[in-house]
């Protein structure tokens, strides 16, 4: 499990804290010398699997307001980098905060560029962190967190001053809508409660005069001043800081502030670094001063934790899928057992019922085959009504045609096996005679026969085959109309086969 640890660096030493569920636990103080660096390196090696955040409270901190044209993407970043180089050349610890866009036509962007101007003060500590491969998520300052403190306490609107006590100095910050635009440190010569109270009053007036001279605030503009102090020191601070001129004072009880922030270890005196460390752990600013090189191990830790999280999600997904499949398999097994029991019960009931049936002398399998065959034969049964209707309509139109016999059947003997009958068509064989009229010629008799045959063929569902012509025509014998008048006047016999496909 990854632990969260906070490092607090001032001008003389570095303090280490463990942060656990709203509690700050001091773990060590390391002086700014060789022995302190070695002790800090040992501390890092003894606290593996931790992420570190560095909060700095140093005097070498610069702030510059800049205006750049409306740009996006790499062009904007390149211009910001150039502006940082112009104002703070020689330090890698810098950042830029957008203050919004002007409402004019060009939409210029207002920037606050901040930097830690003494990188040599940070390098020994960062060297220890990099040597121990300790993940450092960023470098932050007390000035950055002043707006967060007022916002959490619900007093972050408009222009104001924030005065807090850290170490042996007073941090003075000028904020506009929760964003620190200027911050500086003032040394504290008298650490008594009375000395702290008088120092707050004096520094508030000095900072106001400086801001008026820089035209950051108007001379007659009302400016709220927020002062954070220990509850035991608040009466003295309130007596030393009455409202005067444009300055109106408001006081923050550090214990009440700790309760509102969710810090369960309130400050023991008027120093406020515990409040800012808790804010850094719970609501870190979006911008920080460290570049990518000091944060290399932190990026690797993020990648490692991301891969572990993906693996855990995949494992949980596999477990859920396996659980679902196991549940379905168990459900199917229970359904199978239920169906098997139902089948056994139905078989038992069938045996009981079938025992009451009269005995037929054959087994069930043979009876099943007979009933199946009977059903097939029943489905194959057809009546000759359709065939006879077509034939009767043709006979009505041909009065000189007389039928002698009609033979109707289903299917014909298959060519492959003499015993098999194909039931895909019905066959009608008709035999009859053509009764010629008086003085009818041979051609007229044949024409009558052909007309009868064509009438039958007009039904598209049948096919017609001539089995016997009215005259025995041979290819080498000519047909003449005047020969054999007595023979021609006799009825001429013919035979036709009509087949019709049986619709399914």
What does this protein structure show overall?
By secondary structure, the protein is an alpha+beta fold. It folds into 2 domains: 3-60 and 118-294, 2-Layer Sandwich (Nucleotidyltransferase, domain 5), CATH 3.30.420; 382-501, Threonyl-tRNA Synthetase, Chain A, domain 2. It is 40% helix and 29% strand. The chain contains 13 helices and 17 strands. The chain has helices at residues 34-46, 73-87, 123-131, 142-153, 193-213, 234-240, 254-261, 273-282, 296-354, 364-380, 385-397, 442-457, 485-488; strands at 3-9, 13-20, 23-31, 50-56, 61-68, 94-101, 109-116, 136-141, 159-166, 169-176, 179-187, 223-229, 247-253, 401-413, 421-434, 462-468, 492-501. The strands form 4 sheets. The protein has a 5-stranded mixed β-sheet. The chain has a 5-stranded mixed β-sheet with strand order 11-10-9-12-13, with helices on both faces. It has a 4-stranded antiparallel β-sheet with strand order 14-15-17-16. Helix 6 (234-240) links the parallel strand 12 and strand 13. The radius of gyration is 55 Å and the shape is elongated. Residues 417-421 have low confidence and may be disordered.
Structural features:
504 residues; alpha+beta; Nucleotidyltransferase, domain 5; Threonyl-tRNA Synthetase, Chain A, domain 2; 2 domains; 5-stranded mixed β-sheet; 13 helices; 17 strands; 40% helix; 29% strand; elongated
- Text of the CATH class of the largest domain: Alpha Beta
Q: Give helix and strand order, one letter per element, not per position.
A: EEEHEEHEEHEHEEEHEHEHHHHHEEHEHE
Q: Rough shape?
A: elongated
User: Strand share of the residues?
Assistant: 25-35%
The termini sit apart by: 76 Å
């Amino acid at each position: 499990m990854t632990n969260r640890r906070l490092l607090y660096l001032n001008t003389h030493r570095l303090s280490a804290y463990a942060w656990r569920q709203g509690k700050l636990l001091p773990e060590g103080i390391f002086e700014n010398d060789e022995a302190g660096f070695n002790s800090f390196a040992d501390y890092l090696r003894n606290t593996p699997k931790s992420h570190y955040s560095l909060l700095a409270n140093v005097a070498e901190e610069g702030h510059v307001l800049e205006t750049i044209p409306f740009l996006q993407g790499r062009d904007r970043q390149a211009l910001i980098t150039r502006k940082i180089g112009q104002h703070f050349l020689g330090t890698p610890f810098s950042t830029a905060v957008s203050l919004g866009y002007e409402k004019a036509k060009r939409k210029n962007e207002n920037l606050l560029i901040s930097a830690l101007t003494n990188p040599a003060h940070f390098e020994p500590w960062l060297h220890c962190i990099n040597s121990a491969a300790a993940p450092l998520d960023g470098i932050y300052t007390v000035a950055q967190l002043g707006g967060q403190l007022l916002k959490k306490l619900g007093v972050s609107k408009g222009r104001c001053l924030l005065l807090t006590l850290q170490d042996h100095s007073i941090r003075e910050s000028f904020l506009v809508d929760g964003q620190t635009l200027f911050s500086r440190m003032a040394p504290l010569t008298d650490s008594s409660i009375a000395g702290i109270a008088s120092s707050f009053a004096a520094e508030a007036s000095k900072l106001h005069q400086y801001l008026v001279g820089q035209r950051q605030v108007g001379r007659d503009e009302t400016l709220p001043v927020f002062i954070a102090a220990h509850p035991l020191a608040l009466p003295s601070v309130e007596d030393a800081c009455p409202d005067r001129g444009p300055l109106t004072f408001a006081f923050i009880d550090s214990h009440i502030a700790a309760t509102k922030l969710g810090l369960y270890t309130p400050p023991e005196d008027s120093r406020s670094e515990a409040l800012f460390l808790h804010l850094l752990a719970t609501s870190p600013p979006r911008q920080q001063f460290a570049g990518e090189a000091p944060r290399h191990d932190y990026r690797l830790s993020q990648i490692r934790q991301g891969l572990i999280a993906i693996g855990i999600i995949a494992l949980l997904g596999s477990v859920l899928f396996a659980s679902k499949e196991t549940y379905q398999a168990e459900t199917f097994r229970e359904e199978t057992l239920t169906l098997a029991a139902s089948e056994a019960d139905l078989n038992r009931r069938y045996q009981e019922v079938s025992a009451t049936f009269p005995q037929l002398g054959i087994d069930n399998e043979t009876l099943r085959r007979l009933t199946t065959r009977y059903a097939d034969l029943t489905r194959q049964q057809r009546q000759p009504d359709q065939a006879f209707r077509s034939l009767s309509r043709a006979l009505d139109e041909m009065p000189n045609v007389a039928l002698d016999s009609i033979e109707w059947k289903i299917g014909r003997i298959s060519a492959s096996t003499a015993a098999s009958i194909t039931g895909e068509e019905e066959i009608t064989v008709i035999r009859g005679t053509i009764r010629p009229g008086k003085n009818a010629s041979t051609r007229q008799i044949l024409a009558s026969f052909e007309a009868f045959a064509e009438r039958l063929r007009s039904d598209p569902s049948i096919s017609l085959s001539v089995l016997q012509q009215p005259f025995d025509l041979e290819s080498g014998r000519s047909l003449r109309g005047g020969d054999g008048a007595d023979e021609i006047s006799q009825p001429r016999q013919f035979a036709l086969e009509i087949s019709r496909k049986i619709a399914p």
